[in-house]
Design brief:
mainly alpha; Farnesyl Diphosphate Synthase
Length: 303
């Protein structure tokens, strides 16, 4: 395999976007360690591998089944939308992306079986993994295609919010405490806004092929207001999490994230998303908000 093809596979795998799943998974393990005083690193490693494999299956299948809309959106896209455009170059045959997705799908299932039956991580281990597969792999994959039927944003809210935190904690401890639900809420709200704002540059292409996501259904103006409402829910849920076990010291790490969120939300409210360059900046900052929120929680429990 030559250097260009290796680089193409690297880009197709979208490593920067693995952080939105890896950091919540790390948070779940940190919470388990904080609550019990122990951490099984082997179980953590296998669980992290399964998480990455599920994300790879999601991204590869998305590139394959979103080929048409990604091709149409290449003139409006930015670094955070419109896919990687790798398949459009022809360096990697389109069918190879689907084969890679299926291989990752099978491997992730194998890891799930290993965790549940060899490491005895609990009877719900495979179920939690299956939820991730249903949410991610079928986000764009036919015949379900959540993103094309108006359910994509909800599945992202769940699969990159509660699920990785809960699954990581569960395979360490064997249960899911109430704290997990509250600590996952701010992460879920920020990732919801990530997927929502990333739909803005894809709007013309998505509308043309009848991809019924929220922005296509209700338009940019209404969804910009909804972005603001989700931001308010994000701020409120973070503050509320202090009442359920999040250390108050988290506010130190959250303060710059909150300021950035206020600034970014103000941009959306002003209509800066109408400018292509400013929209790309909003997409970038919204992603930083998600990663920063998770990181602030990790630091609060570790330190």
């Amino acid at each position: 395999m030559n250097r260009d093809k290796l680089q193409a596979w690297f880009n197709l795998s979208r490593p920067p976007f693995h952080t939105v799943g890896v950091l919540p998974f790390i948070l779940g393990a940190v919470l388990a360690w904080h609550q019990t005083g122990r951490l099984d690193w082997v179980v953590f490693g296998w669980g992290l591998l399964a998480t990455i494999l599920i994300m790879l299956a999601t991204y590869y299948s998305g590139e394959y089944f979103d080929y048409e809309t990604d091709t149409l959106s290449r003139f409006e896209r930015n670094r955070f939308s419109g896919g990687t455009q790798v398949l459009q170059t022809g360096i990697i045959p389109k069918r190879h992306a689907l084969i890679a997705a299926l291989v990752c799908l099978v491997l992730s299932g194998g890891v799930g079986l290993l965790l549940q039956f060899c490491y005895r991580t609990g009877p719900y281990t495979i179920l939690l993994g299956a939820l991730g597969l249903v949410a991610g792999f079928f986000y764009s994959t036919k015949p379900i295609q959540w993103a094309y039927r108006g359910f994509g944003e909800i599945w992202i809210w769940f699969a990159y919010g509660w699920l990785p935190v809960a699954a990581s904690y569960y395979i360490q401890v064997g249960e899911i405490p109430t704290l997990i639900y509250w600590i996952a809420l701010p992460i879920a709200f920020t990732i919801f806004n990530v997927i929502l704002i990333n739909e803005f540059p894809d709007y013309p292409a998505d509308k043309k092929i009848c991809k019924k996501n929220l922005v296509v259904r209700f338009g940019k103006k209404r969804m910009s207001r909804f972005y603001v409402l989700v931001s308010l829910a994000f701020w409120g849920s973070y503050v509320l999490s202090f009442s359920f076990g999040v250390p108050i010291k988290a506010i130190i790490f959250f303060a710059p994230i909150f300021i950035l969120s206020v600034v970014t939300t103000g941009q959306v409210l002003r209509g800066d998303y109408k400018d292509r360059g400013k929209l790309e900046g909003i997409c970038a900052k919204t992603l930083v908000l998600n990663l920063g929120t998770t990181l602030s929680l990790i630091l609060a429990f570790v330190l």
